[in-house]
Each structure stands twice: as C-alpha cells, then as structure tokens.
Amino acid sequence: MSDFYNQINKNALPAHVAIIMDGNGRWAKANGQPRAYGHINGVKSVRAVTEAAAELQIKYLTLYAFSTENWNRPKEEVDALMGLLVSTIEKETETLNKNNMRLTTIGDTKRLPEPVYKKLMGCIESTSSNTGTTLNLALSYSSRWEIAEMVRQISEDVKNGKISSSEINDELISSYLSTKDIPDPDLLIRTSGEYRISNFLLWQIAYSELYFSPVMWPDFTKENFYEIIVDYQKRQRRFGKTGEQIEESK
Ligand code: FPP
Q1: CB-based burial, 147-171: b 16+ in 10 Å, e otherwise
Q2: Is 22 a catalytic residue?
Q3: How far is CA 98 from the centre of its chain?
Q4: From the candidates 22, 41, 184, 199, which is the catalytic residue?
C-alpha cells in the first residue's frame, strides 16, 4: 500500500467528500485533443476516486458531473457528456452492486435527455438497497437553482399552512434541499488549480474544509485523493469555537 494510504487514520475519515472535477478541457487541449477526449479520460479518475472512497468506506462521495451552466456549452460537448454518462452507468451498475454501493443524484435531472434520465433512474433503483458508500452525482445542478427551489417550496408550505414562518431555521432549510438525506460535506476538493466554488453546494459547505488541488481532473489518481485525506486529518475543525474549547471537549 502507498505511503499516503498508510498515513490515513481510518477512524477519523470524512463522512462526506464532495469534488468539483475540473480541468478536463484544458487537459485535452494540452494533449492536442478535442474537449470530449478530456471528459473520456475524466471517467477514469471518477472510477479511481469512487473505488478509493469505497475501499476507505467513506459514506458519501458527491461528484459535480454537470452544472446548470454546462447546458450552455456547445451542443457537441453536451452530447458527448450525456453519452459518457449513459455508457458509464451501463458499464458500472454491476460494479456498484458488487461493491454494495448506492447511486443517488441531486439536480434538475428532469432536464436530462429521456434516455439518460431512464438509465440514471434504472441504476438508482437497482442500487437503492445497498448499504456501503453512496455515490451522489450532481447533474444539471447548481446551488442557486436548489436554493430557489427550496424557497419556492417553503413559501408554498407556509401558504398552505403546513408550516409557519416562525419555524424557518437552519435545520428546516436543510430539510428542503436536495441533500436532505446526506450530511454536509466535511471536505470539498476542487481540481485544476482554480480557486472557485462555481455554484456548488453553497449552503452545505458552510463549515467544510476546502482543498484546491493543482492536478487536472483526468490526471487525478487514488494517490492524490489519499494525500488530500491525510491533509484534511491534520486540520482542526472548530465550527466557530476556539481551539482550546475543541481540545477540552475531546
Ligand atoms: C470540468 O472540466 C468537467 C466537467 C464539466 C464534467 C465532468 C465529467 C466527467 C468527468 C465525465 C462524466 C462523469 C461521470 C460521473 C460518468 P472542464 O470541461 O470545465 O475543464 P476546463 O475548465 O479545463 O475547460
């Protein structure tokens, strides 16, 4: 086993890791290839990181696979990404089941082309009773879309008397988000050396540890992932308290 793997404290793992997989396009360009080539190679990294999360028994792994804004990319690229999603789901559903993994999704998935939506729902259904790692794909997702949906639903429920406006607090808001069944991410990773959040899980990352990796997503390996987990475990999470208070409560 690798150096970084051996340094991981298996009793202090993040319960939820979220990843903004960035750099496919630039990686392809640097290799003199069309952007879709970057996405094809990005799937290898998806596989590697999913496997690493499952082996470590990390409970939730959320991958930002397609944003609301990505619908504005050239049709050719959107089609390539949708095709990759279908072929990956076809190829990997059995692997997910063999590894007791569950697939879930967040986002406006109704906007996905019918065949993609059907494949996705088929895989979600087929893996729904698995109890190991949950692979959560953010598809046609953006945080502002999700927040607007939450506000719409809360106002509906106030209007129809289901809840009263005085009940609105952090917890209630979280229960109206698409991540209601998932704990907030402990760790958010973005690859490709960009220091942005890009409309991803804005509410949920209030206390997440952030890690910006310079590695382009198609080059991202299990080893890179292990290294980040080791770094995460060296940090002290204070949630607004003092370092002394955290030490005392241990
Ligand atoms: C960002 O790179 C990546 C995406 C928009 C899509 C990520 C998709 C995959 C890795 C493949 C499909 C996923 C699954 C789960 C099967 P970019 O194109 O923004 O790169 P750039 O910033 O260099 O242009």
Answers
A1: beebeeebeebeeeeeeeeeeeeee
A2: yes
A3: 21
A4: 22
Alpha carbon distance 72, 134 (integer Å): 29
SS (H, E, C) 155-220: HHHHHCCCCCHHHCCHHHHHHCCCCCCCCCCCEEEECCCCCCCCCCCCCCCCCCEEEECCCCHHHC
Distance of CA 220 to CAs 80, 189, 190, 215, Å? 21, 11, 11, 6
162 CB-near residues (< 8 Å, 6+ apart): none
Distance (Å) from CA 233 to ligand 1 centroid: 27
119 lines ligand 1 (CB under 6 A): no
- The response to whether residue 24 sits with its C-beta less than 6 Å from ligand 1 reads yes
- Whether this prediction's pTM lies above 0.90 is answered by yes
Q: How far apart are the first and last CA of the chain?
A: 31
Distances (CA, A) of 193 to 21, 22, 23, 45, 215: 11, 9, 8, 16, 7
What's the pLDDT tens digit per position in 140-192?
999 999 999 999 999 999 999 999 999 999 999 999 999 999 999 999 999 99
Between the CA of 156 and the centroid of ligand 1 the distance, in Å, is 35
Q: Is the CB of 43 under 6 A from ligand 1?
A: yes
User: Has 169 been annotated as catalytic?
Assistant: no
pLDDT tens column, 11-48: 999 999 999 999 999 999 999 999 999 999 999 999 99
- Whether the CB-CB separation of 66 and 81 falls below 8 Å is answered with yes
Question: 138 — phi, psi (to 5°)?
Answer: -85, 115
The CA distance from 167 to 234, in Å, is 38
